[in-house]
Design brief:
Elements (H helix, E strand, L loop, with lengths): L1 H31 L1 H4 L15 H19 L4 H24 L12 H13 L23 H8 L9
Helix pairs in contact: 1-4, 3-4, 4-5, 5-6
Length: about 160
Amino acid sequence: MIYFLNALIILGTFILMELVAWSLHKYVMHGFLWYLHKDHHIPHNKKFEKNDFFAFIFFIPSWLLMMFGIMDGCDFRLYMGIGVTLYGFCYFMIHDGLIHKRINVLSHTKNKFLIALRNGHKAHHQYDAKADYKKENDICYGMLWVPKKFFDEVYDEKSSNTKP
């Protein structure tokens, strides 16, 4: 029973992280920490961005949860930390691999769910190269959850958006 409970904590934390990431992306990264996130919205050929600093910021709660969870006999915090870490790993693979192709992972997928995620994120960046870019025009702040219309477009057999 304890293994099932620990798995539920990991899964629940992973799901909760999508809500946390969406909120932080919209209100913090596109808010008062825009100066760190802005270079992610400016086309460039640099290997690293100031925006990459957020990975270090988000690493801290995961590490603390796991550390204190282990120190207290592998309590629930350990499993929460594992859920946060798994979310971070998926974020890295999907955001930096599938979407922005900064690493060569998932970039040639034919999976319709992943294509819908990619299309939603592309919509988030659709105004980036425009001279009149305003961060307020951005949409789709999540990583694993984008508006239903992006899924509808991909799953509609007549749609031309099914190409990766």
